[in-house]
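> example.struct
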């Protein structure tokens, strides 16, 4: 079955959801003027949206796994847009606060179910499918501020009603495909049942390893988005306009890397992709911190962006692979909680900059990147129980069975099962890898 339309629709839904996340910070200057807010009060709106989103995303992911709720995506897009739309229409700070939380709830509804459906629609090409979905987030974050910058100077704060247009259109499109998405979930469940994948158990140890890596990576990536323009202007002594262009270069490079990173990972394997990217990312960031040459710094920031983003879809896909029975939960944590926590740590790193300078802040990010590399090496070296394979590690024709790791595990305990598995398909059985202590 060709699921190209559904895959494109998921990407579009991701774009329209994250448009609101990108638009909220860009809207703060207009809110400050219109509602006479303090900087702290304005920043609290973003914090409220992020916190509510990160707290409840795993919950929605859990329910999505249990009940198969593709309509969560349509409702999520609609709520995210509704919260932003109402921000220009309410008349008190606490209603603004409520609107920000509604946007956060919408974001929390969409991401776990969207990530789960991206996994389903992708079939055996998980890396490419997750890349297509993930790049929608990059685009949304970039487009959101552009919309605000275009409409607010003309229409004022009430220009926020524009945010309702993409939300309503895409929510309707997603809702029209609700039956198709449900059918695809049934087809995927039958496929897993027929080839034995449904017998795979969740590997919480592997999930915790990749999540620890993801947390460290998110802290660095979130910090770079905040501090690159400041570092460029105040340490490298470049004009503010150039500093903004560098951030655009960083974001654009990341979007390209996100799109193609999953496709490469489908060929080389998720773990290899992750550890290779981190092995490039960490020294490139360290060199960026110590260089004073503007042109070399620009080259290094592109390398940092490419290597950081190319591994993103692999991290999500591997997280989902470790929890095959809780794909929505894995998506909610890997795309929601982790990213939000990364953003929450930025003020702490900013405090380091206030006390010791921006170079110290960037040095902290480089140190956290090194921690991420250590987690990546651990992830690569530790053998999984049961072993979960990416497309590159599990090459076989689609009509051949993929024998589950749980069968292989049983074969190590039962001579009868061991003999049967070797007779049926010795090359295809997923061998259980045990740690030798």
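> example.seq
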């Amino acid at each position: 079955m060709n699921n190209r339309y559904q895959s494109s629709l998921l990407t579009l839904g991701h774009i329209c959801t994250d448009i609101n996340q990108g638009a909220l910070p860009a809207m703060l200057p207009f809110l400050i003027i219109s509602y006479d807010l303090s900087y702290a009060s304005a920043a609290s709106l973003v914090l409220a949206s992020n916190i509510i989103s990160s707290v409840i995303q795993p919950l929605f992911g859990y329910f999505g796994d249990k009940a198969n709720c593709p309509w969560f995506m349509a409702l999520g897009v609609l709520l995210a847009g509704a919260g932003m739309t109402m921000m220009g229409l309410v008349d008190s700070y606490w209603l603004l606060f409520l609107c920000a939380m509604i946007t956060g709830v919408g974001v929390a509804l969409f991401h776990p179910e969207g990530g789960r459906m991206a996994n389903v629609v992708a079939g055996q090409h998980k890396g490419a499918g997750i890349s297509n979905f993930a790049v929608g987030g990059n685009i949304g974050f970039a487009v959101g501020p552009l919309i605000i910058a275009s409409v607010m100077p003309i229409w004022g704060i009430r220009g926020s009603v524009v945010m309702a247009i993409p939300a309503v259109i895409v929510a309707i499109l997603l809702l029209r495909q609700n039956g198709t998405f449900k059918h695809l979930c049934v087809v995927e469940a039958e496929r897993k049942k027929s080839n034995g994948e449904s017998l795979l158990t969740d590997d919480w140890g592997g999930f915790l390893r990749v999540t620890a890596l993801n947390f460290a990576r998110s802290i660095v990536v979130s910090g770079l988005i905040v501090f690159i323009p400041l570092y460029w202007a105040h340490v490298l002594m470049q004009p503010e306009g150039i500093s903004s262009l560098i951030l655009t270069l960083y974001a654009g490079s990341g979007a390209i890397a996100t799109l193609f990173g999953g496709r490469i990972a489908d060929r080389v394997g998720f773990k290899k992709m992750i550890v290779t990217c981190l092995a490039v990312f960490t020294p490139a960031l360290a060199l960026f911190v110590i260089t004073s040459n503007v042109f070399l710094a620009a080259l290094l920031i592109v390398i940092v962006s490419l290597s950081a983003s190319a591994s993103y879809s692999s991290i999500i896909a591997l997280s989902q692979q470790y929890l095959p029975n809780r794909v929505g939960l894995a998506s909610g944590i890997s795309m929601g909680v982790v990213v939000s926590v990364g953003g929450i740590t930025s003020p702490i790193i900013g405090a380091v900059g206030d006390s010791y300078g921006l170079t110290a802040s960037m040095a902290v990010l480089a140190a956290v990147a090194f921690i991420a590399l250590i987690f990546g090496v651990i992830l690569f070296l530790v053998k999984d129980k049961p072993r979960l394979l990416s497309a590159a590690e599990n090459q076989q024709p689609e009509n051949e069975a993929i024998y589950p790791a749980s069968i292989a595990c049983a074969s190590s305990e039962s001579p009868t099962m061991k003999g049967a598995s070797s007779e049926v398909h010795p090359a295809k059985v997923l061998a259980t890898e045990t740690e030798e202590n």
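> remarks
Confidence is low (pLDDT under 50) at residues 387-437.
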